[in-house]
Amino acid sequence: MAAEPTTAHSPTRSDVSESFTLRIRRYDPESGEAPYWVEHTIELEPHRSVLEGILQAKGRFDGSIGIRCSCKAAICGSCGVRVNGQPGLACHTHLDRAKATSRDGVIEIEPMGNMPVIKDLIVDMDAVHWKKVQRVTPWLINKTPIPEREYIVDRESMVDVTQSMACIQCGACVSDCLAMEVDPLFIGPAALAKSYRFVGDPRDAEQRERLMDLAEDPHGIYDCTHCFKCIEACPKGVAPMNQIMRLRRRATGDHHIVDRNNGERHEAAFVTLIKNYGLLWEAELLPRSYGGNSWFGKFAPPAGLELASSLPAITKAVMRRKVTIMGAVKPHKIPPADLKQVQAIYDEIEGRDKRIEYNLYISGRDEDNEDSPQERVEATGDAKSEDNA
Ligand code: SF4
Ligand code: SF4
Ligand code: FES
Question: How many helices, marked H, and strands, marked E, lie in the chain?
């Protein structure tokens, strides 16, 4: 069972048509003209989709509006657009909901971001999205010898990869990925979620090689900045950022991959600083990320080089009073009683025999259930023993 899509809601069912005004961004790169906006007013029942609205505008007013679609049922992934600035599926966004979230009562529709526009609302998925998916070897690499009969996989492993298998390759997560805006070479949320589908599959012969590749790539798993945008954008509950975190936990916790991007050391530095002080101590983060988790880390030559290259940014921050020298150098600490509580969380997690991950995607969301997520998941029998800390 898939999680409830982010754009879903319970619209008031009405068979009475209403007027909705759509503001559509038009752009034809071949024309040499700059992008512009047009407005069309359509008549449809409020629970109908934005896609139906666009198609009506196309049929009634201007057949040249470019939109890609097929299934009209949130299955094929072809109608990705931005509605009022939020990426999603046009066929999965109700008109009344879109109007309610608009700035001025007009539903604004534009193409997805981070991908070049082919025409109007159609973006070039091949140029970005599919290229990145191909980058992660999106197929199972068989172990040998291949079993003569069916390869039975245990239930827990399948539950683990089901969430990434729900992806319909719509590109909504790619559209608003902040890391990709800064680094267009970042492999990105959709492709990395796809990668987890095979890394988490016990039939795959090259899990370690895949993880090594993604950890060592400067545009790989450690390029994600945890902005949550891809989780908000995904209409199928894939939560790509969570899959990226799973890839990291597998790379570090299971395969002990210490990468050249300092991703593993950087995470370890974060975890240790919070454990020791209860708060992040930025002045220690950089040296520990390069030189390891000890006081001597400060003297690691790469840490010095990185510090030197960051000096202009640090000077700017000090001049603008975003940081003070004393504030950066002095450890940030919380009251001892609070620190004890933080450390108790560490003790609890680190004291477990095995790491535990609850697959909330499979158990679904039950807003009426007052129980804790743990109780709900255990009640459905979908608790999964894996890597979580
Ligand atoms: S969480 Fe990571 S992958 Fe997802 S949108 Fe943000 S930077 Fe991109
Ligand atoms: S992860 Fe979600 S948003 Fe991204 S391509 Fe797949 S279905 Fe679309
Ligand atoms: S038309 Fe297929 S997902 Fe929207």
Answer: 17, 9
With 0-12 / 13-18 / 19 or more C-beta atoms within 10 angstroms meaning exposed / middle / buried, residue 284 is buried
Q: Which ligand sits nearest to residue 196's alpha carbon?
A: 2
Q: CATH: 3.40.30.10, 3.40.50.300, 3.10.20.30, 3.40.50.720. Which one for 18-123?
A: 3.10.20.30
Mutational test site, ligand 3, from 49, 50, 68, 71, max ligand atoms within 8 Å of CB: 71
Hey, whose CA ends up nearest to atom 6 of ligand 1? 227
pTM of the model: 0.83
What class has domain 129-146+158-255? mainly alpha
In tens digits, the chain (389 residues) has pLDDT values of: 344 444 444 545 678 999 999 999 999 999 999 999 999 999 999 999 999 999 999 999 999 999 999 999 999 999 999 999 999 999 999 999 999 999 999 999 999 999 999 999 999 999 999 999 999 999 999 988 888 888 888 888 888 898 999 999 999 999 999 999 999 999 999 999 999 999 999 999 999 999 999 999 999 999 999 999 999 999 999 999 999 999 999 999 899 999 888 889 888 888 999 999 998 887 788 888 887 777 676 677 777 777 777 778 778 878 887 777 777 777 778 999 999 999 999 999 889 888 777 666 665 555 545 444 443 333 333 333 333 32
Whether 226 is in the pocket of ligand 1, judged by its Cβ within 6 Å, is yes
d(CA 349, CA 338): 17
Of 101, 98, 99, 79, nearest in space to 89 by CA: 79
* Domains in the chain: boundaries: 18-123, 129-146+158-255, 263-351
The closest residue, in CA terms, to atom 5 on ligand 1 is 177
